[in-house]
Design goal:
Structural class: mainly beta
Number of helices: 2
Strand content: 35-45%
CATH architecture of the largest domain: Sandwich
Bound molecules: calcium ion
Helix content: under 10%
Oligomer: single chain
CATH class of the largest domain: Mainly Beta
Largest sheet: 8 strands, mixed
Length: 244
């Protein structure tokens, strides 16, 4: 866990209390939760015609006999090509599920341990999902949410004692476009470095974002402090993704 400190300075010629400084403290939480089993789908960006890889991560506090993660995506402008467990925490498990249903836009992933050991407690990769974005896909943000897939698949972990655990779920997104919203430092990912970049631009005379509107994450046609707050909410408080 890290904390970043900075000051916002507001000046006004006629004010007796000018300039006024406000200390801003940004605390970055660790990616693995301190408690609470979780499934987290990553947010990635891609251009029309390209393939993107969306990692799905999970955290479990107890040994697990089974993991079931049904997913749904809400766009016809991309297709899921394949599911890969290579390099994941469950690669050793024999029974792995990777059912892709392009009509319903659902993907069922998960594992069931049989004769092999249970999945030990830990945090890391469950699977990688490969998507191809259509050549003529318009700019948009695609949601990757969990769902119910008939006849009986819902988001669940099953522990060694055959008890169900309902994990917390964090949605992922595929941001389609030539410019990635929320990426003012233009390194093709949305992270705390973009928050620092915006603060630097707005308050410390730093460079303007190369793609100016990549910093306009709340989509009100200007880059301002509200975009900084919006981005922090998205990254650390479960807020909405950059709108675009
Ligand atoms: Ca960035
Ligand atoms: Ca804005």
């Amino acid at each position: 866990m890290n904390s970043y400190y900075d000051y916002i300075v507001i000046s006004c010629n006629d004010a007796t209390n000018s300039p006024e400084s406000i200390l801003v403290v940004l605390t970055v939480n660790p990616s693995s939760p301190a408690s609470g089993d979780t499934v987290r789908v990553a947010t990635v960006a891609g251009k029309p015609g390209n393939q993107v890889v969306v990692p799905v991560y999970f955290y479990n506090s107890k040994p697990l006999g089974a993991v079931v993660v049904p997913l749904k995506y809400n766009s016809s402008d991309l297709v899921c090509d394949s599911v890969s467990y290579i390099g994941s925490r469950v690669e050793y498990v024999g029974l792995k599920v990777g059912n892709i249903n392009p009509l319903d836009k659902t993907i069922l992933i998960g594992v069931v341990t049989l004769t092999e050991p249970s999945v030990p407690p830990g945090n890391g990769l469950l699977a990688n999902l490969y998507f191809t974005i259509n050549q003529n896909a318009p700019q948009q943000t695609v949601n990757l949410d969990t769902c119910f897939i008939p006849p009986q698949s819902y988001l669940v972990f099953v522990d060694d004692a055959a008890m169900e655990i309902k994990p917390h779920f964090i949605q992922g997104h595929i941001i389609i476009g030539d410019m990635l919203y929320g990426d003012p430092n233009n390194d093709l990912s949305v992270s705390v470095s973009d928050v620092i970049y915006l603060i630097s631009y707005l308050f410390k005379g730093g460079s303007q974002p190369k793609n100016y509107y990549s910093g306009d994450v709340n989509c009100d046609n200007k880059v301002s402090l509200t975009d900084v707050v919006y981005l922090i909410n998205y990254l650390y408080r479960g807020g909405l993704p950059p709108i675009g």
